[in-house]
Amino acid sequence: NHFDEMDPSDPETIRYSCADSDFALRLYHIFNNWFAHNLPKHRFIAEQLESPAAVYVGLMRCNGVPMDVAAMTAAKENAEQEIEKLKGQIAFLIGDVAIGSNCGTAAFKNYLYKTLKLPVMKQTDKMQPSVDDEAMLLLNDHCREHMPEMAGLFDLVLAYRKWQKLKSTYLDGYLDFVNSTTGRIHPDLMQLATETGRFACRRPNIQNIPQRGQDPVGIRNFIVAPEGWTLLESDYSQAEIRLCAYLSQDKTLLDAYRQGLDVHAITTSAVFGISLEEAMDHGSPEYKHRRTVAKGTMFGIMYGIGGAGLSRNLYTNAGVNLSKEQCSEYISGILRKYTGMAAWQGEMKALAERYQYIETAM
């Protein structure tokens, strides 16, 4: 039976519950002894950090996320119209080739590589011609130079995929999880579901919503405050870079924070080889572009990105189109500026290779 169906005065119920408690206590001692010997810091993390936080995570899930269902339904209809429009524009260029829901069909692949005889710019893990987003970008660059009449196709394909993703994941997907009683989404929030220790969320993944600049639907606007309440959005200021400064003890970064300087301006100066004054000039027509590239490069470096990866990230996240070679130069410029950070990264890689694990500050 379920616990709420059992008679608490029944001796068998009492025996069962006592056995449960006894097993839990025995396991508690077994696990703690193991951790005390092998990972002594684990107990502090579990008891002082994760367990107290779990209480509030449970409250967050129970309270849920209020959603504007009417607005989501209207946006879904608009998305369907946009998808049909893009599908028609693609068909105008390629005819009746079946493209499916994301232009990943065998028919579309054959059209590109066999009918048009385009070069294979990227392959899958199984050594087959790829039609992922990166392949589309590379083919777009090729066609601009060698087959200009087809260059627009790949912009349409990327837009088509983007709208399909928005509709399936954030409109259909989120609507499926709105609780009919509360009018809210109550997602599974998981503290320890990733190897890196980051939070994770599922059913649905509501912590991974597109940024406003990359979302023509405006998914974030569907999260609303209850009547008489206000939603407050807050964020750490440059959390990753501050942590990087602390862990690497890079003198340039530490001095910048101690003096209250604009770290992104210093980074912009290093990336583009310009003076700090020029990097901080809000009136410059290049100000926003330079700062976007510098921030993307800095954050990318902290996660070990290379020239090709940075080129792809800047294009997909900020609409900035730069070559792999340009991006590699920008990465080198930052590493020359923040030598302490570069040395620390090399040291961490060496330690990871030698010991097969790394540690956080805790």
Quick tags:
about 350 residues; mainly alpha; two-stranded antiparallel sheet; 14 helices; about 60% helix; about 5% strand
What does this structure look like?
The chain is mainly α and 362 residues long. The chain is built from 14 helices and four strands. A two-stranded antiparallel ribbon has the order 1-2. α7 crosses α8 (251-258). The longest helix has 28 residues, at 11-38. The chain is globular and about 85 Å long. It starts with 10 loop residues before the first helix and ends in a 7-residue tail after the last helix. The model has no long low-confidence stretch (mean pLDDT 92).
Radius of gyration: 26 Å
Q: How far apart are the first and last residues' alpha carbons, in Å?
A: 43 Å
Major sheet: size, sense and barrel closure?
A: 2 strands, antiparallel
Determine the mean pLDDT.
92
The class by helix and strand makeup works out as mainly alpha
Write a compact overview of the structure shown.
By secondary structure, the protein is mainly α. The protein is 60% helix and 3% strand. α11 crosses α12.
Map the helices and strands.
Elements: H1 11-38, H2 42-63, E1 65-66, H3 69-94, H4 106-115, H5 133-146, H6 151-176, E2 184-185, E3 188-190, E4 200-202, H7 239-248, H8 251-258, H9 263-272, H10 276-279, H11 287-302, H12 307-318, H13 324-337, H14 339-355
Antiparallel strand pairs: 1-2, 3-4
